[in-house]
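An instance follows:
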Amino acid sequence: MLIWNNNKSLDKKTATFRTPLTAAISKDEGKSWKHLKVLENDPEGFFCYTAISFVDNEVLLGYMAAERLGLKEKIPLVVRKLNLDEFYD
């Protein structure tokens, strides 16, 4: 599993923004990636520093999530629990 900011298709002005937050699955040691899933897609958002942990059939994700313009005021941490099957939809 890979979690990253899949923003390569955005214009140069927004290419450095840390959004959207996307997941993908590889079954061949990272040679190819399938089952792309957008986890966060706020164009004004800032999503990064993801931690991943697997517990049974669930995935625990922890990451920083903030509005880009309000980064100096508050930087919340998000903790999400998703069923592993949700990454294959």
Remarks:
- The chain has one domain: 2-88.
- Residues 2-88 form one domain.
- The first strand starts at residue 2 and ends at 5.
- The mean pLDDT is 89.
